[in-house]
Amino acid sequence: MNRRLFLQRNAAVLKTPTAAAATPTAATAAQDPPEKVSRYANKVLPTGLSRATSTLVPYAGPWGYEQAAHLLRRTLFGPTRPEIQAAAASSLSAVLNGLLTAPAAPAPPVNVSTTDTSVPIGQTWTAEVFDQNFEGVRRASLRDWWLGQLLGQGASLAEKMTLFWHNHFVVELGDINDARMGYEYCRLLRQHALGNVKQLAKDVTVTPAMLRYLNGNQSTAGAPNENYGRELLELFTVGKGPLIAPGNYTNYTEADVQAAAKVLTGWRDQAAPVGSYFTASRHDGTTKVFSSCFGNARIAPNGASEYLDLVNLIFQQAETARFLVRKLYRWFVYYVIDAQVETDIIQPLATLLIQNNYEVAPVLRALLSSEHFFDVLNMGCLIKSPLDFTVGLCRQMQIAFPAASAGVVAQYGMWNYLNGVVALQQQTLGDPPNVAGWAAYYQTPQFHELWINAVTLPRRNQITDLLIGNGYTRNGVKIVIDPLALTLAMPAATASDCNLLIAEFVRLMVPIPLTANQLTFLKNALLPGLPDFEWTVEWQQYLAAPTNTAKKAAVTTKLQAMLRALMGLAEYHLS
Amino acid sequence: MKRRDFLQTTAAAAAGTALLSGMPIGAYGYSPQLAALTNATTQSDKVLVIIQLQGGNDGLNMIIPLDQYPALMAARGNIALPQTSVLPLTTATGIHPAMAALHNLYQNGQVGVVQSVGYPNPNFSHFRATDIWTSGSDSNVTLTTGWAGRYLDGEYPGFPTGFPNAQNPDPLAISIGSVVSNCVQGPSVNMGMAIASTTSFLQLLSGGVDAAPNTPAGHELMFIRQVVSQTQVYTSAIQAAAARAQTLSPLYPAAGQNSLADQLKIVAQLVSGGLQTRIYVCTLGGFDTHTLQVPATGSTTTGTHATLLGKIAEAVNAFQDDLRRHSVQDRVVGLTFSEFGRRIKSNSGNGTDHGSAAPLLVFGTKVNPMVHGPNPTLPANAGVNDNVAMQFDFRSIYTSILQDWFQVTPATLTQLFGRSFPYVPVLRPGALLATAGPAEVADFTVYPNPAPRDGRTTVAYDSAGGHVQVVLLDTLGREVRRAVDRELPRGAQQLPLDLSGLAAGAYYCQVREARRTGSRIVVVE
Fold first, then answer.
1. Of A36, B31, B223, B311, whose Cβ has the fewest other Cβ atoms within 10 Å?
2. Which interval of the chain is the signal sequence (chain A) (predicted)?
3. CB contact, 8 Å: B291 with chain A?
């Protein structure tokens, strides 16, 4: 499609909803909940856009701030200016080495509530016995701890990949109703975040949280429960292809679901200690026969190890690798997978994944160091998830959070607040909406656009406004953006020049260049109606008397106004 | 989420939600529990337009002390106007010739001048001085709220929760510009809505946005911008108001020539279109004239500052004409302010440096069309540190306008500004009475009428008792005589009215009581 056609088509799309703008709000007035899908979102995949035609050839172009920022935006939550600068001063391969290095396992979540009397505040509850009375506060503790891991991430891909696997091998903490099992699940995801996906698939199959979530614990020889077997095939591994015959989804059939369910019979979750166990008497002892999709493979009775045979069989299917790689592509690059991407990116990466026996790190390295990844057409096109937006905001603006020394109650309290903020934006850590994960990663054709609607967008603006303004206080601790500190950290020549200052914030905070009009607009927020040199004058006056309240307030309010305007741009939602 | 929650959410939040040319049109803070100053909502159809002259306007080159020309020339001979070019407002005070249109409005009773407005201990920082003027604080006090924002917060407790609603469907305040004004910053949220720019505003009205690049990022950008426009709860109200009114005045310059005129054109359109917004803030930048405020060679009546003053005059003149054509002129008053004036003494670069007090203009059919206060007194040989001394505290102007225009009680004013400030009659006496409609004073006669020149006449009426004013106004509403301003007993009154020194012509004799007022035409022969 040529440029003119594109513009015409978009003009038509834009006009239609405007004409109807007054009515839908009234028409949906009585509905509850409100629209989840914006009427402006894709009706079809935007395949007519200019798209990168680059391949997996290793990127050999310039390596600087722009490239480093792109890489870190996609792999971290809100890279900070120092992180981007450090990466830019390093090399792509060195940065990737760091990103792909798994950090040490974090200490488990601790009790922060007087409700949970099993352990004192500050000690972990994860090894205590289950008590329904404590479940609520433990689940909150787990969720908040998890958010704390995102906030405290180093320059490692581990947290973004942990979240990826959470969205892939979904459980809902609310469903499993045992935070200790939830923690074990989190631990497992984090352990394999940058590791072997086949091993993760094996372990997650019998982790107690999953046994509960997809009813594996209720599956017996006499009454196999197909839930896990079905999702394993449909969502976790080979994926569902087109329906080509009754009960045949190209990559697997209904008979395969039944066979897989039989393989998985006999497993149950165990509450104390948290774990799972196999009961031979509940297990289907027959030989399981799979369809031609699996080469008519047979799995012989193998007791407690039989599920391993099943996972091995599934991972022999090349489609499993392609399915996983497509999901990674949508997570890290963009949601449109056209024929060129399928051929030049997905297929080679799938081959690489198989060649590496499903170790994910080599695939990530190939993708994240490719010409395709650094193609300018692939920059700035991801819409931030609520977690990316909110955690990214806090990290990028280097907001100081209560340290452990302030006490775990204050620390978890603030993480809890952020979880609430993120949940209002329609993403709840530990509780994706269903077994398929967040719709933004699979629901065609809208995909990431699903994050943005008339409800969630103002929520995003609320949190940026709050944090650039008065901040949020809980337990006597306040989180707030300190624009003065951010500016003071810049080179003196940058901080004292309004154009350089704005440019520095812009390249930190938005992933695509702003127009001259937009830069003027930002300058007008910083320096309303004044010539450029007046910023220098005011800034120098502040520097000359840094403890003078009035001088400090003078530059602070202007920086706040400029950053508020910058965070109000549509571009700020892009990554 | 219920529909109501949704509306509250979006009203609360649109902060900087980007739209038009990728620029924000909404800017509200997050939804707070407001510590609202309790105050009953007052019914009002009055509109206040605040024009912020950014950069520090050189007041001495706008309102000129004709009685001190030697001192003026000694201090700023390189930039001062030729005395003959100054347009006289009174015998002692004149206005820059670039403001001929305002001079004309003054003569038609639609412009007032307040001399030497400032505050004690002036600050010479743009940022700080602007904060002081927009917050209404003392020089050494930092307030995080705006003066008009505190007023609106008292009027609309709880904003933005529950807004817009049936009673208040429209923005409480609108800034024409890309950012909301600090003048309307409330205790926790800004009470105003910013309309990005004049061109963006027009885009808002037509529902369009700038093109984004034909890339994946551009595609997502366009999508987000559309959702932004959808979430702006006041968009349809603004569009509807704008659709109801045309620009009627031919006096506006072509769009893009005079940004203040472009802004005021939008204000006129929205006011006449029935938007219930009470406060509009417009801005004109460029007043930071450190160098070349007049050309290095050529007439001092031209140059940067003259051009800026000309823009103000042209814009306000067209605005008043537009309002008149829409018959809403009596509902709107405006004032200008700048963070400071400039130094008495010019610098060698044909410019002026940061100063302190400066004149302020008020405009509208309801303003008191006079020069308030005497000219500033200039030293015979001003040095670089000499500044115009303050005569009126800027908060006197704010509080007087709030009191006369929005009926804010003195007690509330004290609450809003921390203490009371002397009243300045910048609005015409009884400006509000035309619509407030207090009872007429019955059986009120003036005899003889017509009355002889330099003679006297008698006002006869039945007093209700209490404080009474009997004043004589000229046809422009200027008070020319005050016969009575005191407590009178209840009952029949015969009050002498001295006419000495008054030119022949028609005058209005007004009797004002606490709850009644009356007016008669008196002709002096």
1. A36
2. 1-21
3. no
* Domain region containing B336: 3-433
pLDDT at B205 over 60: no
Preceding peptide of A433 cis, ω within 30°: no
Element (H, E) at B495: strand B491-498
Q: Does B6 touch chain A (CB under 8 A)?
A: yes
Predicted pLDDT of residue B42: 56
Closest in B179, B217, B222 to A379, CB measured = B217
Same domain, B20 and B72: yes
User: Model confidence at A75, in pLDDT bands (50, 70, 90)?
Assistant: very high
- Does B486 lie at the interface with A, CB-CB under 8 angstroms? no
Q: Shortest Cα distance from B401 to chain A (angstroms)?
A: 25
Compute the CA torsion angle A270, A275, A281, A283 (nearest 10 deg): 120
Query: Cβ of B214 under 8 Å from any chain A Cβ?
Result: yes
- Answer for the pair A478, A492: CB distance below 8 angstroms, yes or no: no
Where are the extended beta strands (E) located within B55-149? 63-65, 87-88, 93-95, 111-118
Residue at a domain's end among B433, B459, B479 = B433
CA B410 to chain centre: 20
> How confident is the model at residue B210, as a pLDDT?
62
Q: Are residues B461 and B350 in the same domain?
A: no
Q: Are residues B514 and B489 in the same domain?
A: yes
What 3-state class would DSSP assign to B291?
Answer: coil
Residue B442 shares a structural domain with residue B410: no
Which CATH number do you get for residue B8? 3.40.720
Instruction: Output the pTM of the full model.
Output: 0.78
Residues B12 and B39 in one domain: yes
B369 & B492 share domain: no
pLDDT digit string, tens, across residues B235-267: 778 888 888 888 899 999 998 899 999 999 999
Contacts of A514 in chain B (CB under 8 A): 22
B292 shares contact with chain A (CB less than 8 Å): no
Residues B269 and B344 occupy one common structural domain: yes
Burial class of residue A38 (count of CB atoms within 10 Å of its CB; 0-12, 13-18, 19+): buried
Same domain, yes or no: B408 and B505: no
* The predicted structure's pLDDT at residue A36: 60
| Amino acid letter, B39 | N
Least confident among A400-404, A476-480, B475-479:
B475-479
SS3 at position A429: coil
Say which residue the tokens 């790190």 belong to.
Answer: A361
- Can you give the pLDDT at residue B439? 65
Report phi then psi at B234, rounded to 5: -95, 0
Q: Does B170 touch chain A (CB under 8 A)?
A: no
ipTM of model: 0.90
**Residue-level pLDDT at B440:** 72
Cα dihedral B375/B481/B509/B441 (nearest 10): 100
Does the beta-carbon distance from A336 to B216 stay under 8 Å?
Answer: yes
pLDDT for A11 beyond 80: no
Question: What percent of chain A stands above pLDDT 90?
Answer: 83
Number of domains in chain B: 2
B137 in reach of chain A (CB within 8 A): no
State the CB neighbour count (10 A cutoff) for residue B227: 25
Which of B133, B184, B195, B214 best tests the A interface by mutation, with the highest count of A CBs <10 A?
B214
CA nearest to A328, candidates A286, A370, A287, A293: A370
B433 pLDDT higher than 60: no
How far is B246 from chain A, CA to nearest CA, in Å?
21
Inter-chain residue contact A524 with B30, CB threshold 8 Å: no
| Burial of B479 from C-beta contacts in 10 A (0-12 / 13-18 / 19+) | middle
Domain end among B433, B466, B490: B433
From chain B, the residues in CB contact with A573 under 8 A are 224
